[in-house]
């Protein structure tokens, strides 16, 4: 493998990986605050892609489409949290896992009902001609995805660090009961955590659509997002982003190094090995529980 | 020997199904066989998830193992199905044990993720080993034969499935009434308390996984024989979710629940035939509705509104 090829692959890996990073962020944020792992996040990505398709067909300018998708995703998440998650948030973990799966199935079912199973495509608003610098080709769409991911990551980190709601979320993730006693409205923390995460999920759908096309099966991205979250340790924002990029790189390089037949096995082998040996990931903290 | 009313009811039901089957055409019999296969797989999953409280998203993978191993044993080594299926059950149970060795240390969502990863591994392996498994194009399963080499007709296959299903229900009932059944429930209710009382939680989880995988392997082997064709897509995430829906709708941790849930939901696609395009949405709504409003499932509802009033009335009459 030449150096140029390696760099070219690295660029491709990072740009795919930054989508995974967004999905991982969307998984980690509600998990951190409410302890619910949202298996429907993949379908939120699908929702974002279709929302982008519909808004684009209305001939809206791209910035409006982006804003529209983010707002729709956020509002949808807040509504779903209020109607479906809040009534069972105290239920056993099994119930919550199945409920989010069911929500995902519902979203997917509604989408294929409305749009059918056939694929659609969404053109990127950017010039398909790549930029050439230092002998490497930079795809403008990929650069835009990277920029979005960087922006979202920094905003999320800033949000958790500096804003009142972000601090409240961190407090609730440590101890919901104590936070309630300190005057934090836990239900509104859950609402915002869900809203933010589904907004990010929908945004990643909009970003990924030009790369892989639009069909009801886009939701499979969640498997990569989950792997990224596991690598990052499920509780760390920076870890999730790092995990996403790592998954993207592993995927791109294993395709070249191992061959296409068994490259699909690599992410799942990695997922299981990590869970067996470091279930709290590379960045997370082990959960200690008093019996 | 004292025969309980439930056993009597079971024997009568199996006999009734056997007789009723002889009057039915091939399609109703096919549907009934599928429903019974679903009952067998739900029984296994319910032991693992309902009784011992372990989330498993890879139940369909063990079904796939049962189906592929038994079919390949028949195809490659020429084994008759009544040898191949028990072999497949053993292999599935062994793999379940192997999977459980590392996963039994995981709880909740981490277990869900590990089993989800295992499901993907199995599915990708089945798809990529196309020389052996036929890959995504699927595998045609040879017709089952018995001693004289004559292929069995659909009614005889139905009788086999019926007998196996009846036996599975009986075995599961007895299992739950025995020491291991109490241990499974204890591990779900409180792993720490059961450990303190001398129940080896690790061993119980291992047994639960092995049992669930065995039941799934049995169901898979029978499915291959009944349908005559298998492909990896039938055993994906959606199949695993479907099996979980069986036990959620029926009732977690109850044999009656497995039977009710699997039969009702197996009939559902037929009932929904006129509104086929809505079936995914309806399925999701049923699952959500039961999780939120009927968390103990149909079995508990039946017990509360039908069985227990009847029992009370009978008891009152006796005491008068």
Can you summarize the main beta sheet of chain B?
A: 2 strands, antiparallel
Give the spatial strand order of the biggest sheet of chain A: 1-2
What is the mean pLDDT of chain B? 87
* Low-pLDDT residue spans of chain A: none
What coarse outline of chain B follows from CA principal-axis ratios?
globular
What's the number of extended β-strand segments of chain B?
2
Give the terminus-to-terminus CA distance of chain A.
53 Å
Helix count of chain B, per DSSP? Answer: 14
CATH top level class name of chain A: Mainly Alpha
Report the mean per-residue pLDDT of chain A as an integer: 85
Main sheet overview of chain A: 2 strands, antiparallel
What fraction of residues of chain B sit in β-strands? under 5%
Give me the oligomer status: heterodimer
What does this structure look like?
The complex is a heterodimer of chains A (291) and B (320). Chain A is mostly helical and 291 residues long. Chain A has a single domain, classed as Orthogonal Bundle (ABC transporter involved in vitamin B12 uptake, BtuC). In chain A, 74% of the residues lie in helices and 2% in strands. In chain A, strand 1 and strand 2 form a beta hairpin. In chain A, helix 1 packs across helix 6 and helix 5 packs across helix 6. With 320 residues, chain B is an all-alpha fold. Chain B has one domain. Chain B has a two-stranded antiparallel ribbon. Helices cover 78% and strands 1% of the residues of chain B.
Task: Give a quick precis of the structure.
Chain A has 291 residues and is mainly alpha-helical. Chain A contains twelve helices and two strands. Chain A is globular.
């Amino acid at each position: 493998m030449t150096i140029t090829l390696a760099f070219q692959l690295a660029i491709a890996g990072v740009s795919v990986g930054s989508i995974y990073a967004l999905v991982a962020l969307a998984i980690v944020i509600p998990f951190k605050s409410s302890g619910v792992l949202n298996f429907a996040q993949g379908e939120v990505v699908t929702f974002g892609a279709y929302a982008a398709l519909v808004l684009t067909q209305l001939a809206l300018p791209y910035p409006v489409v982006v804003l529209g998708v983010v707002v729709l995703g956020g509002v949808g998440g807040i509504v779903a949290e209020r109607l479906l998650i809040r009534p069972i948030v105290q239920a056993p973990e099994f119930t919550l896992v199945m409920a989010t799966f069911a929500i995902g199935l519902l979203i997917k079912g509604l989408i294929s009902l409305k749009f059918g199973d056939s694929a659609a495509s969404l053109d990127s608003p950017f010039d398909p001609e790549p930029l050439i610098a230092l002998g490497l080709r930079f795809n403008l769409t990929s650069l835009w995805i990277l920029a979005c991911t960087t922006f979202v990551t920094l905003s999320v980190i800033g949000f958790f660090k500096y804003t009142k709601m972000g601090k409240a979320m961190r407090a609730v993730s440590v101890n919901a009961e104590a936070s309630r006693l300190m005057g934090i409205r836990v239900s509104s923390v859950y609402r915002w955590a869900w809203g933010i995460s589904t907004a990010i999920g929908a945004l990643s759908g909009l970003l990924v659509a030009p790369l892989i096309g639009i069909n009801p099966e886009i939701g499979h991205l969640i498997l990569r997002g989950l792997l990224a979250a596991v690598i990052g340790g499920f509780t760390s924002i920076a870890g999730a982003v790092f995990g996403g990029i790592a998954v993207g790189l592993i995927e791109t390089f294993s395709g070249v190094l191992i061959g296409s037949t068994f490259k699909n096995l690599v992410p799942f082998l990695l997922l299981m090995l990590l869970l067996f040996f470091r279930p709290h990931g590379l960045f997370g903290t082990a959960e200690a529980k008093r019996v | 020997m004292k025969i309980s009313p439930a056993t009597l009811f079971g024997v009568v039901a199996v006999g009734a199904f056997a007789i009723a089957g002889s009057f039915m055409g091939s399609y109703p019999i096919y549907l009934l066989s599928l429903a019974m296969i679903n009952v067998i797989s739900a029984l296994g999953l319910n032991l693992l998830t309902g009784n011992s409280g372990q989330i498993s998203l890879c139940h369909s993978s063990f079904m796939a193992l049962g189906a592929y191993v038994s079919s390949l044993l028949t195809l490659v080594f020429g084994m008759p199905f009544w040898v191949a299926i028990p072999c497949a059950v053993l292999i599935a149970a062994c793999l379940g044990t192997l999977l459980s060795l590392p996963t039994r240390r995981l709880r909740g969502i981490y277990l869900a993720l590990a089993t989800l990863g295992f499901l993907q591994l199995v599915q990708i392996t089945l798809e990529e080993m196309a020389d052996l498994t036929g890959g995504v194009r699927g595998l045609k399963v040879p017709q089952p034969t018995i001693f004289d080499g004559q292929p069995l007709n659909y009614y005889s296959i139905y009788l086999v499935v019926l007998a196996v299903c009846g036996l599975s229900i009986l075995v599961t009932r007895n299992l739950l009434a025995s020491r291991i059944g109490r241990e499974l429930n204890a591990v779900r209710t409180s792993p720490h308390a059961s450990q303190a009382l001398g129940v080896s939680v690790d061993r119980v989880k291992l047994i639960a996984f092995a049992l669930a995988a065995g039941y799934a392997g049995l169901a898979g082997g029978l499915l291959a024989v009944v349908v005559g064709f298998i492909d990896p897509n039938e055993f994906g995430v959606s199949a695993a979710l479907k099996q979980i829906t069986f036990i959620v709708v029926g009732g977690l941790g109850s044999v009656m629940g497995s039977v009710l849930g699997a039969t009702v939901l197996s009939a559902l696609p037929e009932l929904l035939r006129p509104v086929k395009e809505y079936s995914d949405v309806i399925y999701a709504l049923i699952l959500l509705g039961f999780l939120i409003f009927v968390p103990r499932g149909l079995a508990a509802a039946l017990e509360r509104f039908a069985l227990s009033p009847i029992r009370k009335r009978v008891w009152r009459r006796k005491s008068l």
